[in-house]
Amino acid sequence: MAEVKAKKITAKDYASDQDVKWCPGCGDYSILKQVQSVCAELELNNDETVFISGIGCSSRFPYYMETYGMHSIHGRGPAFVTGLKTVRPDLNVWMITGDGDSLSIGGNHFIHLLRRNVDVNVLMFNNQIYGLTKGQYSPTSEKGKITKSTPFGSIDHPFNPLALAKGADATFIARTLDRDPKHMRPVLLEASKHKGTSLVEIYQNCNIFNDGAFFTFTEKDSKPDNTIFVEHGAPLLFGKEKQKAIILDGFTPKVVNLEDVDESELWIHDKYDKVKASILVRFFDDPREDGCLPRPFGIFYQEERPIYEAGVQAQVDKHVEAKGEPDLNTLLEGPNTWTIK
Amino acid sequence: MAEVKAKKITAKDYASDQDVKWCPGCGDYSILKQVQSVCAELELNNDETVFISGIGCSSRFPYYMETYGMHSIHGRGPAFVTGLKTVRPDLNVWMITGDGDSLSIGGNHFIHLLRRNVDVNVLMFNNQIYGLTKGQYSPTSEKGKITKSTPFGSIDHPFNPLALAKGADATFIARTLDRDPKHMRPVLLEASKHKGTSLVEIYQNCNIFNDGAFFTFTEKDSKPDNTIFVEHGAPLLFGKEKQKAIILDGFTPKVVNLEDVDESELWIHDKYDKVKASILVRFFDDPREDGCLPRPFGIFYQEERPIYEAGVQAQVDKHVEAKGEPDLNTLLEGPNTWTIK
Amino acid sequence: MSQITSEIKDEVTILFAGDSGDGIQLTGGQFTDTAALVGNDISTFPNFPAEIRAPQGTVAGVSGFQLHFGSIELFTPGDQADVLVVMNAAALKSNLASLKKGGIVIANIDGFDKKNLRLAKYEEGLTPLTDGTLDGYKVHEVDVTKITRETLKESGLGTKIVDRSKNMFVLGFLYWMYNRSLDNTIKFIETKFAKKPELINSNISVLKAGYHYGDTAEAIASRFEVKPANIKPGTYRNIMGNEATAIGLISASQKTGLELFCGTYPITPASDILHFLSKYKNFGVKTFQAEDEIAGICSAIGASFGGKLGITTSSGPGIALKGEAIGLAGMFELPLVVINVQRGGPSTGLPTKTEQADLFQAMYGRNGESPVPVIAAQSPKDCFDAAYEACRIAIEHMTPVFLLTDGYIANGSEPWEVMKSEDLKNISVNFAEPREPQDPAFLPYKRDDKLVRPWAIPGTKGLAHRIGGLEKDFETGNVSYDPENHEKMVKVRQAKVDEIANYIPKQKIDTGAESGDVLLLSWGSTYGAVKTATTKLIDEGFSVSHAHVRYLNPLPKNLGELIKKFDQVVMPEMNNGQFIKIIREKFLVDAKGLNKIKGLPFATGEIVDKVKEVLA
Amino acid sequence: MSQITSEIKDEVTILFAGDSGDGIQLTGGQFTDTAALVGNDISTFPNFPAEIRAPQGTVAGVSGFQLHFGSIELFTPGDQADVLVVMNAAALKSNLASLKKGGIVIANIDGFDKKNLRLAKYEEGLTPLTDGTLDGYKVHEVDVTKITRETLKESGLGTKIVDRSKNMFVLGFLYWMYNRSLDNTIKFIETKFAKKPELINSNISVLKAGYHYGDTAEAIASRFEVKPANIKPGTYRNIMGNEATAIGLISASQKTGLELFCGTYPITPASDILHFLSKYKNFGVKTFQAEDEIAGICSAIGASFGGKLGITTSSGPGIALKGEAIGLAGMFELPLVVINVQRGGPSTGLPTKTEQADLFQAMYGRNGESPVPVIAAQSPKDCFDAAYEACRIAIEHMTPVFLLTDGYIANGSEPWEVMKSEDLKNISVNFAEPREPQDPAFLPYKRDDKLVRPWAIPGTKGLAHRIGGLEKDFETGNVSYDPENHEKMVKVRQAKVDEIANYIPKQKIDTGAESGDVLLLSWGSTYGAVKTATTKLIDEGFSVSHAHVRYLNPLPKNLGELIKKFDQVVMPEMNNGQFIKIIREKFLVDAKGLNKIKGLPFATGEIVDKVKEVLA
Ligand SMILES: Cc1ncc(C[n+]2csc(CCOP(=O)(O)OP(=O)(O)O)c2C)c(N)n1
Ligand SMILES: Cc1ncc(C[n+]2csc(CCOP(=O)(O)OP(=O)(O)O)c2C)c(N)n1
Ligand code: SF4
Ligand code: SF4
Ligand SMILES: [Mg+2]
Ligand SMILES: [Mg+2]
Q1: Ramachandran region of residue A266, left (φ > 0), alpha (ψ -120 to 50) or beta?
Q2: Which terminus, N or C, of chain C has the lesser number of Cβ atoms within 10 Å?
Q3: Ligand 4 center to residue C369 CA distance, Å?
């Protein structure tokens, strides 16, 4: 950033001149606001930042950012991102996607992006519904969901997106909520700093087609007992008074009263621990069920692993070094010629 | 099966009249043999059995089975299977796929098949290479793999297929080896009995393009120390004399000498335990590395969950019952008519 | 009460427009039903915004519903409106161009306050109601909001709920204007709010308030009367295109006894077919919302392999993903119906707009020589016949079939004379018979005299066989790399599709003489506009005829002959010229294109003008 | 030693055939190099089995290599072979039809033992060597295995290794037959086995043994001489089509300074382009083996968006998956080269065979009006020029471009006069310039006089903008649902592609006069066969000319004119008639098709016969 910058950069500097066209009340607005504000905090250069999305309500996002942007094809965001980052590792790239975009049609590109660990921040707006096509169930909709395409309830067992991401060896896995901007902000900041594919699942309310899908986790009454906000190095505590804890009993995670257990038994969150993360992503009980585990939010897992584009670049650099600057004439000539006189 | 069946059914009854055209020495032959023999043991009716595959060397499989068969499109096997089973739950359906077919182009259909839990037996021939297209690396090839398309070594972090399957909430997860027919057979039998999608990953040697990829796990010298054959209810023991055991130390799986630990500390394999399975599928260390965990084989996980096609059928049945036999004229008339005289 | 005259009209077009939340579609639907009940012919076309619910008051959020009703036969929802009802400034802004010169504007003035004017991006300080924009139109300003609130001030209902019945006021007012009874809508309100009686009364009160407002308001000088049309006696229902498609498919399933399986993925404007189908579980319909379009079609092929009626639906961008599988279905020679509800393209294009630009994709959008029959529907109700016919061809000829409709007819509606099951053409299903070991070997690719191979379904004794996408031997169906066999197979797959021409009706002239100066040759949803234009031209004394092609591949056998009887051929298409290329190539005639690529259907006048130009 | 005559020949075609493991490709390659070195013109075509390594000895496992060399200019690998070398019975079975009547068969009799005969499915007890099958051919039986083992019996090498040098014996023998020096192959052996000196000696011994066998064996009555061709002086290399494509792409990258990014997924017969490209990391080439074809093309578009040269390669079934993304690239108006190495279709078809049946897929395989320039390569070496030209058009006209080659030229090879970097046409890259806040707003869709929009790449100051697949405003590129704008955009995208006709060479007559009785109009890999046929027909006194079209969309501006100078137009295509439809439609000429759909290239004779038939 230029040193003589007179004006402090604000969220507004990242808002494009286009009218935002989401439904009034849509959770997408809050996410847009946080992202713009995080951009400001990081003082990202607008010209070196790129937002790429697929198709869906959420995927309109890039139009609203005063950066380079691409509204691509349904589900294919990861492929565009991979191509762009492979040739332009210098850019700061964000990918915006929905639960349908990334887990339905785009599921394959999504898991391949994660395993390759391209350096991009992926924000998955999970509203457990197809918004743009007016309300069909999505791969994250709960079983039995009644929608336009399932008037008698859906039959498919839904994906647990973070478990899937863990299965695909993602190097950064987090979850946050549209209605908790204070939580979202630091998660986005951490995600943007992580070198590799940072996956942030954001529970997002679609007030038109799936209103209240996450109210258990966002509304004052139910939130404390149904959510657990994990923090690296801290024990897994929750409840209104943080009076409840989670421990591992043998191989089974269990809810206990904090006062009933010894401190040594507490599950201390360690975002670098694979096994803990594998179990944590599976805290995915239906909150309507009795005795269920609270739904975790925060950064579940983080791992340092070489990023894809750096590996590609390293091979190029190595060969340029070994073989010298390319000479087109040598290439054209090939290894074997003969001359006719 | 007809009671008067005079002749005992043998594996040969499941061999079609087509010449088998895999390369001599290919691991596929051994799998074909076991499958035919398992069909015989189960006395499957040839006319009620269907083998569906994608594209790849492995996917030629259906041509060699004297059953109904479909050699479909690269990666799309799960979709054909889902359509077929949804309308024909009565059929016994097997899906044959390769590591490229199911994890590269077909990755999305694969994970959706698993989450939906369609009742089909999936045999994934994992040779860590693209055989049919003559030797490019696959999503399961180890990093640094030198192939036709990666003359300087591959850069991508490979999938751990069973971890991915677990992440997709598969209800039956197993692994076996082409070179261990005695192990393969019972695994195939169990898979075929499971109600739901049974995933069996089969390590398969491609002696032309990736010869010896699994020799560490199949050859006499290295096998005992590098493999662990899990059995439901039994402790995780391995080594030539079964002298080594695996325990969970806090959250970390560890190799110990059997004699050094108390029996109560032993990890008893429980294929119904989600958490154990989540950890077990992650025993995926590079066998070339020091202190690595052995690679597990056997049935990792099994869960009863309603199967997709049954759910679909139940809705139909329920509505037929509630609304009576369909009357086309009522449908044609619709709810609102008027009459012009 | 002032003197109110009553004018008789042959046909009227009303365009309702307002915010997505204003209940525009419901208002239009009610007027339609009422018009239908008194025996008017009708044709409607809703026009949705691309955004789900763009911010209230903006142009992007305007929803429209166009209704054409008359005492004469109608084939389109009307070129331009006689009456434009606008609930706010944005609605006026985006629809004024669709109003006839001199037409009537009914404006809810509450929707023209400062905020609404700003949101609609009118120039600061100016309102179109007074700044001259509406010069030459008849404008009726009504403060709908105020009167509605007034009407319900005693109801005890909250303002939000009260305001939601504004549309009933407008409806009542229009009923008055067109001399219509309120009965049908009152019945509707009673059913709809059966569980919320307080809303029954409030809505009916507002409806009546609207009606009475007509009686009392000074402004309105004339009411209109539209007599019943001379419609063939019978029982009718109003039907939308996508609904008709769904019912056509289910009918084919019921008539054949083949379970219907629809593997699909939502996409505008095709999703409604899935929505309709998924309601009819008691007809044994199985719908599968797949993970993507590829899985959608592949699952449908799987179902066909299993001996059922496999269907897949989508729109252009989704169809683009199905090419590989359509090619496979062609190799398999299994029945499959692929429905493309076309929308504005290319790429994501204009998802909520209409176009006919996917014909070539249907004809040629696959690798290799991969012929597929293609048929198109011509109007909302015709979607029924076209869908039924697509199933017939697929099943009787063992082939994937493309059915093309588009956003215009998919969402549009018109009255449909209810059919009886008995009236439906028979579709014959020929499953291969079981065999005993001593029978001669089963030959899965041996053809009958229609060049059709047997449908041998799993579970049938003695027919176990394998199919695949590799080239197959002419009879055994085993993989064959033989060069001669390949050529033979390519030719026979083509011949099989060509052979269908023997099993479809000959091409007819729809309107006009068998020969003449100009033939208007059209296909798909342009039918109504072209027909109306032709009638008009003939009335004006021109030598013009109209032929409308349902069967785009193979073409009717007599089409060439028919065309050659005209000096000129003009082909209107909502694309940049696709069907015309096929006609030019096949018959070497110098057909002229009339192309509109605006995401909107043709107006009759555009066609009339073009023909006059050609003849000038 | 018997009397051996020496015959002089203008051209000779040798077909080597044997098991996949027999080293057939290597043998053919060596003979090719040696022939090239003495100045013969050459053309080759390898023919792989569909199975990787089907069981030894079976017909499915036969690998072939056809080599045409001569003292005259050659354009095809030869219609039929003069000499057929077969290493076993299966090789004879599957290739005999390719041998000229009266041609020479060289048979390794060890490959005709009982087991081999059975595997080749010859009738029990009969061997084609004696049962009359080869009546009329000149057969030389050689026990290659025995002599090879004999030669190396002192070498101390194991039998398996010894047997692997059998092919050297055959090669030596053929060198003798055609009076060739062993030097080139000896040098090759020395390099290849530099690390295994024992194999150098053994291979050279066997090679020489083959040569000497010719000298001593009684059977051979004549040797042949093929004089150097009258080839333009210069430096040459032998080049395969896929290699030429790869080098053409890299050359465009080097000339423009744009990093090359190839996003692709393996598929026969396109994979070799990826294999070649991935070797040239030091040229900054980045190859991405994606998870599927869709990711392949989308990643390439991502790279183009980033300001690099995005390439994607595939064959028919894989191209079918790219339609949606090609449409998007057309909307984006970014450079992209899409290469289709066509194979036998439809569906999975005949993966290792050749065909030209994906032209329509390239032209029309997308939803909506989505024009894309299409060009085709005509021979192995021409793949270089075609690939380079595809990049030029993509970059200078900001558009996706289709390059069509096919299995025949992709795997075939011919001599190529080595180009110098300086000889390559310039390609201009125009990145939009950075802007300061005070500059007028950047308009990403404002066009220059070629109708081309600016390439504004991320990282450039002041150009931040958003692109997408929804219809865009004519200048700002913002999403626009405006009907007029849509039509304007559809038309301008078409006009932009049409405009390319002003930047490509005019169509020329390749062979023959500018007017006459028949024009043979061809495209793609049929070039050699059609040219050869034309020459032959002209020699025989027919009034025939040949024009070969590289630019299939847009067509050269003068094509219509050129065509109209001929009474008849005959269009040979390796498909069921695709380009012919375009020509008929566009120019309303009654062109006649000559279609071969056997997975094999045309033989000259087939074309000659067709023309004679047309003229009869
Ligand atoms: C190839 C293709 N298929 C289908 C569609 C239709 N479509 C657009 S968005 C969408 C799903 C959107 O759901 P999600 O990703 O969850 O986004 P949301 O709208 O909920 O934010 C679908 C099915 C499309 N645009 N392209
Ligand atoms: C759409 C499409 N893309 C690519 C191919 C080419 N192809 C065929 S099989 C294959 C990969 C095979 O690998 P795998 O599934 O591991 O099977 P294997 O041959 O190793 O058994 C590829 C890339 C194809 N047939 N179709
Ligand atoms: S439909 Fe739902 S997700 Fe889409 S903009 Fe509206 S509220 Fe948001
Ligand atoms: S290439 Fe490999 S996997 Fe394929 S048949 Fe040969 S050995 Fe088997
Ligand atoms: Mg969603
Ligand atoms: Mg493989």
Answers
A1: beta
A2: C
A3: 30
Helices (H), B43-167: 77-87, 99-100, 107-116, 161-167
pLDDT at A7: 79
Closest listed ligand to the CA of D321: 2
Q: In this structure, what CATH number is given to the domain that contains residue A108? A: 3.40.50.970
Tokens (6 digits) for C328: 């496979």
Question: Regarding beta strands A337-340 and D234-240, do their DSSP bridges make them parallel or antiparallel, or are they unpaired?
Answer: antiparallel
Side-chain half-sphere of D77: how many Cα atoms within 13 Å?
27
- For residues C330 and C382, membership in a common domain is answered with yes
Ligand number with the minimum distance to the CA of A104: 1
> Which residues of chain A make contact with D463, given a CB cutoff of 8 A?
47, 68
The token pair at D88 is 């076993």
User: Tokens representing B101?
Assistant: 């077919």
Integer Cα distance of C99 and C82 in angstroms: 6
CA of B326 to the centre of ligand 1 (A): 33
| Domain co-membership, D471 together with D525 | no
Residues D312-343: pLDDT tens digits?
999 999 999 999 999 999 999 999 999 999 99
D67, D28 in Cβ contact below 8 A? yes
Q: Which of C368, C394, C423 is the last residue of a domain?
A: C423
Would you call the peptide bond into C556 cis, given omega within 30 degrees of 0 as the criterion? no
Q: Is the confidence metric ipTM above 0.85 for this complex?
A: yes
Ligand 1: does its nearest atom lie under 6 Å from the Cβ of A127? yes
In terms of residue numbers, what domain contains B62? 11-213
The number of domains in chain A is 1
Confidence band of B81 (pLDDT split at 50, 70, 90): very high
Q: How far is it, in rounded angstroms, from Cα D401 to Cα D371?
A: 10
Distances (CA, A) of D605 to C30, C36, D529, D609: 73, 70, 9, 6
pLDDT interval class at C1 (50, 70, 90): very low
pLDDT by residue (tens digit) across C106-130? 999 999 999 999 999 998 888 999 8
Q: Do D291 and B139 touch (CB under 8 A)?
A: yes
Higher pLDDT, C38 or A52: A52
Let me know if residue A219 belongs to a domain: no
β-strands B198-203, B121-126 pairing: parallel
Whole-number pLDDT of residue B1: 43
Neighbours of C257 (CB within 10 A): 10
Supply the range of the domain harboring residue D558: 516-615
Q: Check whether residue C261 and residue C174 sit in a common domain.
A: no
Measured between alpha carbons, how far is D341 from C476 in angstroms, rounded to an integer?
Answer: 30
What is the CA(C361)–ligand 3 centre distance, in A?
A: 32
C10 neighbors C72 (Cβ within 8 angstroms) = yes
Q: Answer for the pair A107, B113: CB distance below 8 angstroms, yes or no.
A: no
Low-confidence ranges of chain D (pLDDT < 70): 1-4, 218-221
- Would you say how long chain B is, in residues? 341
Contact criterion met (CB below 8 Å) for A70 and A52: yes
Measure in Å the smallest separation between the Cα of B327 and chain D Cα atoms: 38
Pair (C274, C369) in one structural domain: yes
Distance linking the first and last C-alpha atoms of chain D: 53
Mean pLDDT across the stretch A59-66? 98
Amino acid at C348: T
